[in-house]
């Protein structure tokens, strides 16, 4: 086992070796959160505390292909300007020696509490046999958000139902009516995904309340990163199930992330789930987490990446870094569907606004964009049943016969195309950064998040189709 001081030394030495490569890579993004070097995956511990937004994240500083996990740390006063801080949590005790895995934050009595999974691998089988792996729920607290108390192990394998295997993790904690609750994602010995619900009066002692959902035949073998919150008075259950088969245009990533509207039966502590749908139709979205902002907004960040997606080789690995997070998105419920809106705060990034109204799509149009790929576009369509937009060399966004498609050429590095059926297209809101695009359709009814690795800067947007469009562009 290594101490924090030993890790700091090793990470400093590695930084010395790779930082020049990372810092000079043209694919580093301008306004998406990335690890300073190495690998980033899930957003963790999201919260607003004493005037700052905190984003912790799964961080492998020493290996751009992923490896031992730490919690990296950024803060921001406004969700736009971010400050990097030293690593918040190191795998430096026996109970988390093979990784400080994902978890969440809760603010209570003016203190920040972080809950995470301590991963421990022993000799033998890491999935089923009781001795092969430990997944411990561990808590630390902090009165300033930067210095953390000693780690306290709260739950171990002994505390999980006996029919669960060795994958039980990713505590998400919240408070309701003076009581604390925690959900954990789990995989049973017969390879079904589950969620476990624990209850506590003091954040330290937890008891299993129920296994509110899981065991479904067509819902995968493991439910990672469970999260639950209310929108418009309805219970939303968000999770990242592994092992769902593709169905028509849906579920084409290796693993999925999505939600179902539930109704929670208070007497039996059972969550009856409605239909599951994915949150994002793009190639790069997984392990989202929400937090409830001080103004009541439910805000989500996702990992712009997918585990085990080796078919999408990210060329940044050679430059010693990989992946990023999505923009913060406000979640809104209309009917039983979640709409995702980039948070309003992001408007502060806008520079040099140019608006063009009533462009007829009948004849092909070329519009010059900006001298780099950090920009935002908003397009409002009228009478447009068919169109095609080409930008960034080979990114094509098209709509025809009720199907919207995002397609990539060489810049996709293996990402080809993804589609969704929509009755009409009212608008397209596009956030483009040096190596990622987020496309929001019809006020966030559908979202596509996709990494893109262009070799050249192509400043033209080519538009063709039917109907009219009002277009606004901003450099970011
Ligand atoms: C999801 C996940 C979590 C786990 C973490 C480890 O991407 O597999 O279940 O806690 O990543 O980095």
Write the layout of secondary structure elements.
Blueprint lengths: L3 H20 L14 E12 L2 E9 L9 E7 L6 E7 L10 E9 L2 E11 L11 E10 L9 E4 L8 E13 L2 E10 L4 E8 L6 E8 L7 E10 L2 E9 L15 E8 L4 E4 L3 E2 L7 E7 L5 E7 L16 E2 L1 E2 L3 E6 L2 E6 L8 E10 L4 E4 L6 E8 L4 E5 L3 E6 L2 E5 L9 E5 L5 E7 L2 E6 L4 E6 L8 E6 L2 E8 L1
Parallel strand pairs: 1-20
Antiparallel strand pairs: 1-2, 2-3, 3-4, 5-6, 6-7, 7-8, 9-10, 10-11, 11-12, 13-14, 14-15, 15-16, 15-17, 18-19, 19-21, 19-22, 22-23, 24-35, 25-34, 26-31, 26-35, 27-28, 27-34, 28-29, 29-30, 31-32, 32-33
The structure holds beta-D-fructofuranose (FRU).
Pfam families: Glyco_hydro_32C (PF08244), Glyco_hydro_32N (PF00251)
GO biological process, one term: carbohydrate metabolic process
Function: Enables the bacterium to metabolize sucrose as a sole carbon source.
